[in-house]
Amino acid sequence: MKKLTALFLAALLAFPFYSCGKDDKGSGANHMYDVPLSGNPQSLDPQFANDPSSNTVIKNLYSGLVSADENGNITCCNAESYTITPDNLTYTFILRKDNYWFFDTNGDDIIGDDEYFPVTAQDYVFALQRVLDPKMQSPYTSDFMCIKNGSKIIKGEAEPESAGISAPDDYTLEITLEYPCAEFLGMLSTAAAFPCNREFFDSTKGRYGLDDKSVMSNGAFYVRQWFFDPYGSHNILYMRRNEINKNEQFQILPTYVSFTIQDSESDIRELFKEDKIECFSTLSNSYSKKKYSVKSSPAITLGLIFNPDDKYFSNTNLRKALAYSIDYSSLSDRISNDTETASGIIPPAVKVAGRSYRELSSDNQFSLYDLDQAKKYLQDAKSELNIGSVESVKILVNAETADSGDLHILSQSWQEKLGIYIGIEDVTAAEFDKRISDGNYSIALYPLKGDLDSGLSVISQFEKNDCLKKIISNSSFTETILKCGDIQSLVNAYTSAEKTILNSFGFIPVFYKNAYLVSSRDNESLIYDPFTGAIDYRLAQNYS
Hints:
Layout: H1 5-14, E1 32-38, H2 52-61, E2 66-68, E3 74-76, E4 79-84, E5 90-95, E6 100-102, E7 116-118, H3 121-132, H4 150-154, E8 165-169, E9 172-176, H5 184-188, H6 198-203, E10 221-227, E11 236-241, E12 256-262, H7 265-273, E13 279-282, E14 293-306, H8 316-324, H9 328-332, E15 339-341, E16 351-352, E17 355-356, H10 357-360, H11 371-385, E18 393-398, H12 404-418, E19 422-427, H13 429-438, E20 443-448, H14 455-459, H15 461-464, H16 466-469, H17 478-482, H18 487-502, E21 507-519, E22 523-524, E23 527-528, E24 535-536, E25 541-542
Parallel strand pairs: 1-12, 18-19, 18-20
Antiparallel strand pairs: 2-3, 4-5, 5-9, 6-7, 8-9, 10-11, 11-12, 13-21, 14-20, 14-21, 15-21, 16-17, 22-25, 23-24
Helix pairs in contact: 8-11
């Protein structure tokens, strides 16, 4: 086992006074970040966790073979290089030899010889086997079904060890696919493909990722302390820069990231107002760009969904009448700057080959505005329902996700054009989720968002989510998309999936909504992923 004690002691001598977090102002480095988590992380197991708090910690705790920048471009990370065979079926990764697992056993910042050891190819083999293992119940299982024997393993017809994943030696990883997949490298940049050491995993006896003694780091920071009392108010998760994995290629700029675990966004907002934290993510656009640094990303599609058991809106022609009467061009001139009109399903923040998917496949092709046709559909609906008019209903809106002001404009338009009165009912996020689950609604403005920055993650919500599955029965988009071997066929598959869903008129897109990262203006290079909710502090700089 390679010893790095001398290297680490040299680093300590170079940076002796960083605990105050205010040194080296000129470069913006060596700052101690005080930031919030909205709720306690559910787990720090990369193959299992998928809530924003967990994702943020995991992003800063681990690193993978490759990584994706803010534009979606894939670059090497822990892989020194990789090759792909001409048939696009076999990926061979040569690992860096300076990436290490670190486990803080003594808690005194003095790294002992027994606390670090190399990350090997076998750690990636074990991690991907875990994702495919149906006993694991990973939320990312279907994303990796393109691996050879993946589908059989997921169905329980083969063992995880039969997957096309092998380690010829400690620093060579080979992955063989069942079919070419243009999405595969992108999937390898996600947390689900971060390494997992089998020996350490087994040693945690089922508690892997659940407390500060059951996690290791191969990334930028390691966990020093994780304390959470559901009845207490001083809950923290404290991370320190991992000097073992700091090198010329991957400079880690902050020294510490100190998370305070909060119950609600209102609590986080108050802390930000009091200047006790430095940044947070939100769906609100109430923060001035003149006073704060505000990054926005149109990552959510707000669309109308309909209760399939509703007396009126279970009727396809009535839903068509609403869809054909939406004049997106006129609407775009009247809505707030928090949203933009949407006639497609995949939001503009989703990237393909470094470009917004919506640049590659414009949603203008889905715009249906035709008022005469809308009125005809309305008459057909009335005839089928044997009614003279449509009774008034209300659109259920999650007030924490959407500003109903923009929706009022659309509601007024329906009343003027079709004579249908549709009101709006704002509710809390908890009540919204419960009413959707219980089927206690007629129409709802549904916030559609992928778990990852990929069109597949957005489209697959119509296969995974209970209320969305009712829109397209017996649909299976995932395997079709994963079998796309090049970018153009991938774009075509996304577009085809969008058309199929839209033609059911069970989901009518209305707006693309921004997600925001708000920070004090003396911070730079904070990277926010609006899909996972993760905030990446590895390159963050502070000039206060």
